[in-house]
Amino acid sequence: VARVVRGQMIVAKEYQYVTAAKALGFNSYRIITRHILPNIMAPVIVISAANFAASILIESGLSFLGLGAQPPMPSWGSMIKDHYQYIILDKAYLAIVPGIAIMTLVMAFMLLGNALRDALDVKTS
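Above: the chain sequence. Below: its structure as tokens.
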């Protein structure tokens, strides 16, 4: 995330509106907060949403392998692991429902990140 923000800042400080703001005598704080930060927030929002989604997948994967949350604490990965043998029997829903919940939550984070990026994008409004 830091590399992306740094790269975006380097590119954004060369834009014409930043040069115009410097020529008008605005201080650095105002240029950064009013002109540069709103224009570099789109990639930061998308990366943050992707990191949340990845952390959910990593936690559930580790719990499925037995390396995540310990048994008194509920986890979708451990629920899938506990009911994995029921997939070939009549109760496949016991393992499929937590998997669908993981998939839905990850997709919701990604869609929320993209929607926030679109809503807060200053270039298109």
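The chain has a mean pLDDT of 90.
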